[in-house]
Predict the 3D structure of the following.
Amino acid sequence: MSDVLAARFQMAMSLAFHIIFAVVGIGMPVLMVIAEWRWRRTGDATYLELAKRWAKGAAVLFAVGAVSGTVLSFELGLLWPGFMRYAGAIIGMPFSLEGFAFFTEAIFLGIYLYGWDKVSPRAHLAAGVMVAVSGAASALFVVMANAWMNTPVGFRAIDGSLVDIDPIAAMLGPASFPEALHMIIAAYAATGFAVAGIHALVLLRTPGSAFHRAALAIGLTMGVPAGLVQPLSGDISARYVARWQPAKLAAMEGQFRTERGAPLRLGGLPNESARNTPYAIEIPRGLSLLAYHDPRAEVKGLEAFPRSAWPPVAVVHISFQVMVALGGYLVLVGVWVMARAIRRRPLAESRWLMRAVTIAAPMGFIAIEAGWTVTEVGRQPWIVFGLVRTSDAVTPFTNLVVPFVAFTALYFFLGVVTAWLLYRLVAKSAP
Amino acid sequence: MTPAVVVAVVIVIALIAYAVTGGADFGGGVWDALAHGPRRREQRALIASALAPIWEANHVWLIIVVVLLFTCFPRAFADLFIALHVPLSLMLVGIVLRGSSFIFRAYGSKRLAAQARWSRLFAAASIVTPLVLGASIGAIASGGVTRSLHLLDRGDSSAGEMMVQLALRSWLSTFDLTVGLLTLAGFAWLAAVYLCVEAKDDALRDDFRARALWTLASLVALMVLAPLAARAQAERLYHALMDQWWSWPYVGITAVAAAMSGWALWSRRFQLARLAAPAVVALVLGGWALAQYPYLIPNRWTIADAAAPPITIELVLIAVALGSIVLFPSLIYLMRIFKKEDAPGVPGNELTTDD
């Protein structure tokens, strides 16, 4: 394995691991705050018990998220010093703000988790709100940094370095809004459905449990609206990609030829050497319509770009299909839930719905992993789109396969233990 | 002072804040490992309840240091992380295992065997991480980092030679290891002093008082030894620190602070000790920073040369100022909730009771 490939794998693995915990860190405080707020409003102790049980799981997940996030901030330098040397001054602004957001999150998390008996109920709820707000703010800032890598603006590039930089303009580049919107909504959808799915699984065995019904309702209250609006933010993202990163869009769609009225492909397996995407169901003019809101619009195919500027097409295309398919499933389940809720039928009494929600539990997270694969692999071969190749940013330190294997083993261990602890917490709550 | 120097000062302050808060959390892990005597269970419970609400917040100081460094001094940051790849990776593994084993122990199985396994991991990670962090700082100060970077620039070493240079020779001189031990002893000492204040009964307090006094003795020995090692291996640092007009007054103030904290411990003025101990640590780190001024990496990057464009530095300083308005009241609020003098005893670990 070449050093640059090992470094990419290590970074990808670290990001893929951390994103799960980061997403929980955005969504979970909202659920805990809703539960605690319901308890204060209704006086029903079920909600207090719920908030406390969720808080136990959250404590484990937050801790693993904090340490795996630290790993990422170090890996920027350990693996990509060329990138940081080039871009640190312009990309550091959102990271600095994220540092403060993370600080606020950690402080109020400590108060929330360990302060039940030490602060007033009102202050406790406020601490939960602070955790939720600063968690979302952290996500916003980190995604802004990534957005700059996709649409670098706010500087002039002269002789391999950046001059006349404007860090504020760089933070507010064209990708910032669509990426951040899509990510934060995804975090609420994924966490909401994951929590609802776990409680739906218990409800399949004990449909009458008031505790798990309450938990299911709160999970879906957050997950369903987020899941239903996500296609709209996806549309904003797709149109931004079409305009700013046409090679990425072509890879997402397996579109090799430049054509007017390009079809939308469902499925299919892109073949880079034959330059086609067989086995796909093609919806005529669908891509032109979705990407440009015009069925006859011209879509640039990969052939419009030099071969050396193509991302790995099959990985990007398949990841995109997976993300859309899973997001689509969440929309269907969301519609089902809404339909039952509007008719005021208890959700837990439909075994089929409980099965559907249970299946949805991991889907938001898999969709997020797939979506980030589209974003990051789709940006290749660039680390800063159009400016710096990933291979030019890697550290001169060699034998990078060693840290890659070591950190993979470490994260595998952490993942297994975390999953086991969460399983124990859920199993104990089941009657 | 130029804005770049101001940011460098902010970074040193953040590093000091990390040492006196997050560092003490690692020290807590050391005392978890060394818990003994009839009250060893109570010792461990006290450490766990002291750490639980605050360690994640304390840890963020390190993130702030890293982020400010790569934003404001990107070229020096890149060089540091190339030359210190191995120790910083080890430190990361230590940080990950310390945090996760601590939380796994608190929320996992309460069976003694499982608890003991996580305790061992927590203790080992709490010992290794400060050693490696200290050795890395030693390697910057002693010039090990600089030598590796010069060799890398020259490019006439074979890949294998370069690998050995970067992996082993950047950071393992006697001086670097002395600084590693100094860091470990300093963190353990801070923890012991803080735990004297946190302990709710006299017997437990005496346990940590004895530990604090012994650790202070070893710390003082290392504080004498480190300059001697520097004289041999980090000459520039030694002269920069010892040949200034402020050298002896500075050493004097540090010695007074150390003596005062020892006296405070001896005479059971624990609140005073809690103030004096972090002051000693701050003075030692501050001395290193002063000796190295104007260099970030000796003979490689001065603050001025490595600085990002002025607009970045200015924006970061604004962000730091605005962030502090939120941060410091929040931190004070956190500490007031959990570290009040007359706080009622945290019941062992609330989580153990309903298991």
